[in-house]
Amino acid sequence: MKVALTGADGLLGGELGAVLKDGGYDLAPILERDVDIVDAAAVRAGLRDIAPELLIHCASYTRVDSAESDIDRVYAVNAFGTFHLARTAAELDCRFVYISTDYVFDGALDRPYRPEDEPAPLNVYGRSKLAGEMLVRTYAPSWTIIRSSSLYGHNGNGFPEKLCRRAIGGGELRVVEDQISSPTYAPELARGIVELLEAAEGGVYHLTNTGAVSWYEFARVLAEELGLPNELTPVSSSEFDAPARRPAYSALDNTAARELGVELRPWRSALREYLEREAEELRTLAGLPSGGEGS
Ligand SMILES: NC(=O)c1ccc[n+]([C@@H]2O[C@H](COP(=O)([O-])OP(=O)(O)OC[C@H]3O[C@@H](n4cnc5c(N)ncnc54)[C@H](OP(=O)(O)O)[C@@H]3O)[C@@H](O)[C@H]2O)c1
Fold first, then answer.
1. By CB distance 3.0 to 4.6 Å, which of 72, 86, 104, 209 could disulfide with 140?
2. Which domains does the chain have, with CATH numbers?
3. pLDDT at residue 291 above 90?
4. How far apart are CA 75 and CA 277, in angstroms?
5. What are phi and psi of 2, to 5 degrees?
6. 125 is catalytic
7. Contacts of 81 (CB under 8 A, 6+ apart)
8. Long-range residue pairs from 193-197, CB within 8 A, at least 24 positions apart, any chain
9. Which residues pair with 204 in a beta bridge?
Protein backbone atom coordinates (compact mmCIF):
# COMPACT_ATOMS: atom_id res chain seq x y z
CA MET A 1 0.00 0.00 0.00
CA LYS A 2 1.27 3.47 -0.92
CA VAL A 3 1.57 5.63 2.22
CA ALA A 4 2.43 9.34 2.27
CA LEU A 5 3.97 10.56 5.54
CA THR A 6 4.32 14.24 6.43
CA GLY A 7 6.90 15.25 9.03
CA ALA A 8 8.92 12.22 8.00
CA ASP A 9 12.15 13.63 9.47
CA GLY A 10 10.63 14.61 12.82
CA LEU A 11 10.88 12.94 16.23
CA LEU A 12 7.88 10.68 15.61
CA GLY A 13 7.88 10.77 11.80
CA GLY A 14 11.40 9.32 11.59
CA GLU A 15 10.28 6.31 13.63
CA LEU A 16 7.01 5.94 11.75
CA GLY A 17 8.84 5.86 8.42
CA ALA A 18 11.07 3.04 9.67
CA VAL A 19 8.11 1.01 11.01
CA LEU A 20 6.14 1.47 7.78
CA LYS A 21 9.09 0.38 5.64
CA ASP A 22 9.69 -2.67 7.86
CA GLY A 23 5.99 -3.49 7.54
CA GLY A 24 6.25 -3.65 3.74
CA TYR A 25 4.41 -0.38 3.04
CA ASP A 26 5.43 1.62 -0.02
CA LEU A 27 6.53 4.77 1.82
CA ALA A 28 6.53 8.25 0.28
CA PRO A 29 8.03 10.67 2.83
CA ILE A 30 6.90 14.30 2.51
CA LEU A 31 9.55 16.71 3.75
CA GLU A 32 9.11 20.43 4.33
CA ARG A 33 11.88 21.27 1.86
CA ASP A 34 9.86 19.53 -0.90
CA VAL A 35 6.32 20.41 0.18
CA ASP A 36 5.58 23.22 2.62
CA ILE A 37 2.10 22.21 3.79
CA VAL A 38 1.19 25.88 4.20
CA ASP A 39 1.23 26.12 0.38
CA ALA A 40 -2.06 24.67 -0.91
CA ALA A 41 -0.85 24.30 -4.50
CA ALA A 42 2.34 22.52 -3.41
CA VAL A 43 0.32 20.12 -1.25
CA ARG A 44 -2.04 19.34 -4.11
CA ALA A 45 0.75 18.78 -6.62
CA GLY A 46 2.87 16.76 -4.16
CA LEU A 47 0.04 14.45 -3.08
CA ARG A 48 -1.32 13.98 -6.61
CA ASP A 49 2.14 12.96 -7.67
CA ILE A 50 2.33 10.33 -4.94
CA ALA A 51 -1.34 9.24 -5.22
CA PRO A 52 -1.32 7.56 -1.78
CA GLU A 53 -4.04 5.29 -0.44
CA LEU A 54 -3.15 6.40 3.08
CA LEU A 55 -1.80 9.72 4.37
CA ILE A 56 -0.30 9.93 7.87
CA HIS A 57 -0.06 13.58 8.84
CA CYS A 58 2.68 13.89 11.40
CA ALA A 59 4.06 17.32 10.44
CA SER A 60 3.31 20.09 12.87
CA TYR A 61 4.52 23.30 14.40
CA THR A 62 5.42 21.79 17.80
CA ARG A 63 7.30 24.52 19.69
CA VAL A 64 4.67 25.08 22.38
CA ASP A 65 6.22 28.18 23.98
CA SER A 66 7.26 29.91 20.72
CA ALA A 67 3.74 29.29 19.43
CA GLU A 68 2.34 31.88 21.86
CA SER A 69 4.05 34.70 19.96
CA ASP A 70 4.05 33.10 16.48
CA ILE A 71 0.32 32.60 16.15
CA ASP A 72 -0.04 33.26 12.40
CA ARG A 73 2.58 30.66 11.51
CA VAL A 74 1.20 28.13 14.03
CA TYR A 75 -2.29 28.28 12.50
CA ALA A 76 -0.86 28.36 8.97
CA VAL A 77 0.93 25.05 9.62
CA ASN A 78 -1.32 23.21 12.08
CA ALA A 79 -4.74 24.35 10.88
CA PHE A 80 -4.49 25.49 7.24
CA GLY A 81 -1.70 22.99 6.41
CA THR A 82 -3.93 20.22 7.73
CA PHE A 83 -6.88 21.65 5.77
CA HIS A 84 -4.91 21.58 2.50
CA LEU A 85 -3.93 17.96 3.13
CA ALA A 86 -7.47 16.92 4.11
CA ARG A 87 -9.02 18.51 1.02
CA THR A 88 -6.52 16.87 -1.29
CA ALA A 89 -7.01 13.55 0.49
CA ALA A 90 -10.73 13.93 -0.29
CA GLU A 91 -9.98 14.53 -3.97
CA LEU A 92 -7.80 11.42 -4.03
CA ASP A 93 -10.17 9.40 -1.81
CA CYS A 94 -7.24 8.69 0.48
CA ARG A 95 -7.56 7.62 4.11
CA PHE A 96 -6.26 10.28 6.53
CA VAL A 97 -4.51 9.65 9.86
CA TYR A 98 -3.91 12.78 11.92
CA ILE A 99 -1.52 12.81 14.88
CA SER A 100 -2.75 15.07 17.66
CA THR A 101 -2.00 15.88 21.25
CA ASP A 102 -3.07 15.74 24.91
CA TYR A 103 -2.75 19.56 24.86
CA VAL A 104 -6.24 19.77 23.35
CA PHE A 105 -7.40 19.22 26.97
CA ASP A 106 -7.29 21.70 29.85
CA GLY A 107 -6.17 19.20 32.49
CA ALA A 108 -8.99 19.90 34.93
CA LEU A 109 -10.24 16.29 35.15
CA ASP A 110 -9.12 13.91 37.89
CA ARG A 111 -9.03 10.85 35.61
CA PRO A 112 -7.31 10.09 32.29
CA TYR A 113 -8.95 11.80 29.31
CA ARG A 114 -11.13 9.67 27.04
CA PRO A 115 -11.33 10.34 23.29
CA GLU A 116 -14.89 11.66 23.66
CA ASP A 117 -14.08 14.13 26.48
CA GLU A 118 -14.62 17.77 25.60
CA PRO A 119 -11.39 19.47 24.46
CA ALA A 120 -10.58 22.88 25.95
CA PRO A 121 -6.98 23.77 25.05
CA LEU A 122 -5.06 26.21 27.23
CA ASN A 123 -2.47 27.38 24.70
CA VAL A 124 -2.07 28.43 21.06
CA TYR A 125 -0.43 25.14 20.05
CA GLY A 126 -3.31 23.09 21.55
CA ARG A 127 -5.94 25.33 19.94
CA SER A 128 -4.27 25.03 16.54
CA LYS A 129 -4.07 21.23 16.83
CA LEU A 130 -7.76 21.11 17.79
CA ALA A 131 -8.55 23.28 14.76
CA GLY A 132 -6.60 20.72 12.70
CA GLU A 133 -8.70 17.90 14.20
CA MET A 134 -11.93 19.68 13.28
CA LEU A 135 -10.75 20.31 9.72
CA VAL A 136 -9.79 16.65 9.35
CA ARG A 137 -13.23 15.53 10.62
CA THR A 138 -14.92 17.96 8.25
CA TYR A 139 -12.95 17.52 5.02
CA ALA A 140 -11.12 14.18 5.00
CA PRO A 141 -13.23 11.38 3.53
CA SER A 142 -12.13 8.70 5.96
CA TRP A 143 -10.18 9.71 9.03
CA THR A 144 -8.52 8.50 12.20
CA ILE A 145 -7.22 10.90 14.85
CA ILE A 146 -4.57 9.56 17.23
CA ARG A 147 -3.66 11.70 20.23
CA SER A 148 -0.47 11.08 22.16
CA SER A 149 1.60 12.98 24.70
CA SER A 150 5.05 14.08 25.89
CA LEU A 151 7.14 12.37 23.20
CA TYR A 152 10.80 11.53 23.48
CA GLY A 153 12.97 9.42 21.21
CA HIS A 154 16.07 9.25 19.09
CA ASN A 155 15.34 11.77 16.31
CA GLY A 156 14.77 15.01 18.07
CA ASN A 157 14.79 17.37 20.93
CA GLY A 158 12.55 15.92 23.61
CA PHE A 159 12.54 16.47 27.36
CA PRO A 160 15.58 14.22 28.10
CA GLU A 161 17.84 16.16 25.69
CA LYS A 162 16.61 19.50 27.00
CA LEU A 163 17.16 18.43 30.61
CA CYS A 164 20.69 17.18 29.85
CA ARG A 165 21.64 20.40 28.06
CA ARG A 166 20.49 22.34 31.12
CA ALA A 167 22.53 19.99 33.32
CA ILE A 168 25.88 21.13 31.89
CA GLY A 169 28.01 22.58 34.66
CA GLY A 170 26.25 20.58 37.41
CA GLY A 171 24.02 23.42 38.67
CA GLU A 172 20.54 23.21 40.16
CA LEU A 173 17.82 21.93 37.81
CA ARG A 174 14.37 23.37 38.46
CA VAL A 175 11.63 21.13 37.08
CA VAL A 176 7.85 21.58 37.23
CA GLU A 177 6.03 19.17 39.52
CA ASP A 178 2.44 20.23 38.83
CA GLN A 179 2.18 18.99 35.24
CA ILE A 180 1.39 15.30 35.01
CA SER A 181 1.23 13.37 31.75
CA SER A 182 2.25 10.07 30.20
CA PRO A 183 5.74 10.37 28.66
CA THR A 184 5.71 8.30 25.48
CA TYR A 185 8.62 6.67 23.66
CA ALA A 186 8.40 7.56 19.97
CA PRO A 187 9.57 4.22 18.47
CA GLU A 188 6.97 2.36 20.51
CA LEU A 189 4.27 4.88 19.62
CA ALA A 190 5.17 4.49 15.94
CA ARG A 191 4.67 0.72 16.15
CA GLY A 192 1.38 1.28 18.00
CA ILE A 193 0.13 3.78 15.41
CA VAL A 194 0.71 1.33 12.56
CA GLU A 195 -1.01 -1.49 14.51
CA LEU A 196 -3.89 0.84 15.32
CA LEU A 197 -4.42 2.05 11.79
CA GLU A 198 -4.46 -1.58 10.65
CA ALA A 199 -7.01 -2.51 13.35
CA ALA A 200 -9.26 0.57 13.40
CA GLU A 201 -11.80 1.64 10.82
CA GLY A 202 -11.64 5.27 11.91
CA GLY A 203 -12.45 7.56 14.85
CA VAL A 204 -10.49 9.18 17.67
CA TYR A 205 -7.97 7.13 19.70
CA HIS A 206 -5.58 7.87 22.53
CA LEU A 207 -2.22 6.12 22.52
CA THR A 208 0.53 6.67 25.11
CA ASN A 209 2.84 4.66 27.27
CA THR A 210 0.78 3.79 30.35
CA GLY A 211 0.97 5.43 33.74
CA ALA A 212 1.31 9.11 34.51
CA VAL A 213 4.14 11.08 36.08
CA SER A 214 5.10 14.69 36.75
CA TRP A 215 7.98 16.23 34.80
CA TYR A 216 9.84 16.50 38.11
CA GLU A 217 9.48 12.79 38.83
CA PHE A 218 10.41 11.90 35.23
CA ALA A 219 13.50 14.12 35.51
CA ARG A 220 14.41 12.54 38.86
CA VAL A 221 14.35 9.04 37.35
CA LEU A 222 16.34 10.21 34.31
CA ALA A 223 18.93 11.98 36.47
CA GLU A 224 19.34 8.91 38.65
CA GLU A 225 19.73 6.54 35.66
CA LEU A 226 22.25 8.85 33.98
CA GLY A 227 24.13 9.70 37.16
CA LEU A 228 23.61 13.46 36.77
CA PRO A 229 25.22 15.18 39.76
CA ASN A 230 22.79 18.14 39.65
CA GLU A 231 20.41 18.92 42.45
CA LEU A 232 16.81 18.72 41.24
CA THR A 233 14.31 21.17 42.67
CA PRO A 234 10.55 20.75 42.17
CA VAL A 235 8.87 24.02 41.21
CA SER A 236 5.32 25.03 40.35
CA SER A 237 4.33 26.08 36.81
CA SER A 238 3.80 29.63 38.05
CA GLU A 239 7.36 29.75 39.42
CA PHE A 240 8.71 28.30 36.16
CA ASP A 241 6.81 30.95 34.21
CA ALA A 242 6.86 29.46 30.70
CA PRO A 243 5.11 31.52 27.99
CA ALA A 244 2.47 28.80 27.30
CA ARG A 245 0.05 27.47 29.92
CA ARG A 246 -0.03 23.69 30.05
CA PRO A 247 -2.59 21.24 31.48
CA ALA A 248 -1.96 20.16 35.07
CA TYR A 249 -3.07 16.60 34.34
CA SER A 250 -3.27 15.26 30.80
CA ALA A 251 -2.92 11.50 31.07
CA LEU A 252 -4.88 9.87 28.26
CA ASP A 253 -7.21 6.88 28.59
CA ASN A 254 -6.01 4.28 26.08
CA THR A 255 -8.95 1.87 26.49
CA ALA A 256 -10.29 2.27 22.93
CA ALA A 257 -6.90 1.29 21.44
CA ARG A 258 -6.46 -1.52 23.98
CA GLU A 259 -9.84 -2.97 22.96
CA LEU A 260 -8.42 -3.31 19.45
CA GLY A 261 -5.38 -5.14 20.84
CA VAL A 262 -3.01 -2.15 20.74
CA GLU A 263 -1.30 -1.30 24.02
CA LEU A 264 2.00 0.41 24.85
CA ARG A 265 4.12 -0.49 27.88
CA PRO A 266 4.28 1.35 31.21
CA TRP A 267 6.37 4.53 30.78
CA ARG A 268 9.13 3.30 33.13
CA SER A 269 9.83 0.21 31.04
CA ALA A 270 9.85 2.21 27.78
CA LEU A 271 12.26 4.72 29.34
CA ARG A 272 14.61 1.87 30.25
CA GLU A 273 14.75 0.72 26.60
CA TYR A 274 15.34 4.31 25.46
CA LEU A 275 18.23 4.73 27.89
CA GLU A 276 19.85 1.48 26.78
CA ARG A 277 20.37 3.16 23.39
CA GLU A 278 20.70 6.80 24.38
CA ALA A 279 22.38 7.05 27.79
CA GLU A 280 25.90 7.68 26.43
CA GLU A 281 24.65 10.41 24.13
CA LEU A 282 22.68 12.06 26.93
CA ARG A 283 25.63 11.96 29.32
CA THR A 284 27.75 13.62 26.66
CA LEU A 285 25.06 16.29 26.21
CA ALA A 286 25.17 16.88 29.97
CA GLY A 287 28.95 17.30 29.80
CA LEU A 288 29.71 14.09 31.72
CA PRO A 289 32.45 11.60 30.90
CA SER A 290 31.24 8.42 29.21
CA GLY A 291 30.94 5.07 30.95
CA GLY A 292 28.99 6.07 34.07
CA GLU A 293 25.73 4.82 35.53
CA GLY A 294 23.07 3.97 32.96
CA SER A 295 25.60 3.44 30.19
N1 LIG B 1 6.50 16.19 20.74
C2 LIG B 1 5.52 15.92 21.59
O3 LIG B 1 5.72 15.88 22.82
C4 LIG B 1 4.14 15.61 21.08
C5 LIG B 1 3.14 15.28 21.99
C6 LIG B 1 1.87 14.96 21.52
C7 LIG B 1 1.59 14.98 20.17
N8 LIG B 1 2.56 15.33 19.31
C9 LIG B 1 2.24 15.36 17.87
O10 LIG B 1 3.00 14.36 17.22
C11 LIG B 1 3.32 14.78 15.90
C12 LIG B 1 4.82 14.67 15.70
O13 LIG B 1 5.46 15.52 16.63
P14 LIG B 1 7.05 15.56 16.74
O15 LIG B 1 7.38 15.93 18.12
O16 LIG B 1 7.61 14.33 16.10
O17 LIG B 1 7.36 16.82 15.82
P18 LIG B 1 8.78 17.42 15.35
O19 LIG B 1 9.91 16.53 15.73
O20 LIG B 1 8.77 18.85 15.75
O21 LIG B 1 8.63 17.31 13.78
C22 LIG B 1 7.70 18.10 13.11
C23 LIG B 1 7.81 17.79 11.65
O24 LIG B 1 6.91 18.65 10.97
C25 LIG B 1 7.60 19.19 9.85
N26 LIG B 1 7.01 20.47 9.48
C27 LIG B 1 6.90 21.58 10.26
N28 LIG B 1 6.35 22.58 9.53
C29 LIG B 1 6.13 22.09 8.29
C30 LIG B 1 5.60 22.65 7.10
N31 LIG B 1 5.19 23.91 7.04
N32 LIG B 1 5.52 21.86 5.99
C33 LIG B 1 5.94 20.57 6.03
N34 LIG B 1 6.45 19.98 7.13
C35 LIG B 1 6.54 20.75 8.24
C36 LIG B 1 9.03 19.35 10.32
O37 LIG B 1 9.86 19.46 9.19
P38 LIG B 1 11.26 20.26 9.33
O39 LIG B 1 12.03 19.52 10.38
O40 LIG B 1 11.85 20.18 7.97
O41 LIG B 1 10.85 21.65 9.75
C42 LIG B 1 9.22 18.05 11.08
O43 LIG B 1 9.52 17.00 10.20
C44 LIG B 1 2.77 16.20 15.76
O45 LIG B 1 1.52 16.13 15.15
C46 LIG B 1 2.61 16.67 17.20
O47 LIG B 1 1.58 17.62 17.31
C48 LIG B 1 3.85 15.64 19.72
1. 86
2. 2-149+184-208+252-259 (3.40.50.720)
3. no
4. 36
5. -80, 120
6. yes
7. 37, 38, 43, 59, 132
8. 193/16, 193/19, 193/56, 193/97, 193/99, 193/146, 194/16, 194/19, 194/20, 194/23, 195/261, 195/262, 196/144, 196/146, 196/257, 196/260, 196/262, 197/54, 197/56, 197/97, 197/144, 197/146
9. 145
Q: Where are the alpha helices (DSSP H) in 147-229?
A: 159-167, 186-199, 215-226
Classify burial at 248, counting beta carbons within 10 Å of its beta carbon; exposed 0-12, middle 13-18, buried 19 or more.
Answer: middle
pLDDT category at 295 given cuts 50, 70, 90 is very low
Q: Which of 34, 62, 82, 179 to mutate to test the pocket of ligand 1 (most atoms within 8 A of CB)?
A: 62
- Give the mutation target among 9, 11, 204, 267 for probing the ligand 1 site: most ligand atoms within 8 A of CB: 11
The tens digit of pLDDT for each residue in 152-205 reads 999 878 999 999 999 998 999 999 999 999 999 999 999 999 999 999 889 999
CA 225 to chain centre: 23
- Taking only the tens place, the pLDDT of each residue in 278-290 is 999 999 999 998 7
Burial of residue 169 (number of CB atoms within 10 Å: 0-12, 13-18, 19+): exposed
Residue 153: CB atoms within 10 A of its CB come to 23
Q: Output the ligand 1 site: residues, CB below 6 A.
A: 6-7, 9-13, 31-32, 36-38, 58-62, 77, 81, 99, 101, 129, 148-151, 156
Decide if 164 contacts 195 (C-beta within 8 A).
no
Contact 101, 58 (CB under 8 A): no
DSSP 174: E
Task: Average the pLDDT over 67-93 and give the result.
Answer: 98
- The packing angle between helices 82-92 and 40-50, to 10°, is 40
Helix, strand, coil percentages for the chain (3-state, nearest 5): 45, 20, 40
